[in-house]
Amino acid sequence: MYALTLSPALYEQITDHCAASPQQEACGLLAGRGQRVERVLPITNVAANPATAYHMDEAELARVLPLLAQAGQDVLAVYHSHPDGSTRPSRIDIASWAFPDAAMMIVSPHTRRASAWRVQNEDVTPVEIMLGAQASPAVHPPSTFARAAIILSALLGGLAVLLIALALLPPAPPIP
Ligand SMILES: [Zn+2]
User: Fold this and answer.
1) Are 6 and 131 in contact (CB under 8 A)?
2) Looking at 12, 25, 60, 122, which residue is catalytic?
3) Which of 99, 92, 85, 73 is nearest to 10 (CA)?
4) In a structure prediction context, what are the per-residue pLDDT tens digits for the chain, which is 176 residues long?
5) How far is the CA of 86 from the centre of ligand 1 (A)?
6) How many A from CA of 82 to the centre of ligand 1?
């Protein structure tokens, strides 16, 4: 089963983008690793009639795709909104789909609901959207090695203070 995992904050970023122009289709990329979305990249819709279609600005894509490759991220999904509120792919969406390895996410700009689909050779299957917490940096107690390093640096710090104190002592009086 293919699924997309993203944080509520990223999901909100997508629905905010779509809700900002409820009468026009908004579009963009979801990039990340595996099934986890790490980044939302809104792309300008340059379709002649953005009320009923979307066409991602190719100049923007050409600028953004190498940055994703550099970051080791893949395009996991392409999202767009439907001003009519439907979150199912239209016949044109399916026929013109150019990302067989990515999911198609469709957002209602009014209800802020979204659904995702896998479209391969005009075969459409649902993709689960899982809202997970943002991956937080793991907090571990310091390892033995880290503890040893902390103790050592404290000792070295003490030694440095001692050496500085010695250096600051007035020179010993010459022995007659
Ligand atoms: Zn559509």
Assistant:
1) yes
2) 25
3) 73
4) 489 999 999 999 999 999 999 999 999 999 999 999 999 999 999 999 999 999 999 999 999 999 999 999 999 999 999 999 999 999 999 999 999 899 999 999 999 999 999 999 889 999 999 998 654 434 444 455 455 555 556 666 666 666 666 666 666 666 66
5) 9
6) 6
Q: What domains can you pick out in the chain, each with its CATH number?
A: 3-131 (3.40.140.10)
**CA 80 – ligand 1 centroid, Å:** 6
Give residue 71 CA to ligand 1 midpoint distance, Å: 29
Query: Is residue 152 classed as helix, strand or coil in its secondary structure?
Result: helix
Long-range interactions of 64-69: CB distance < 8 A, separation 24+: 64/29, 68/29, 68/31, 68/39, 68/41
DSSP letter assigned to residue 54:
-
Strands 114-120 and 74-81: unpaired
Identify residues whose C-beta is under 5 A from ligand 1, the ion: 90, 93
Distance 10 CA to ligand 1 centre (A): 21
pTM of the full predicted structure? Answer: 0.75
58 noted as active-site residue: no
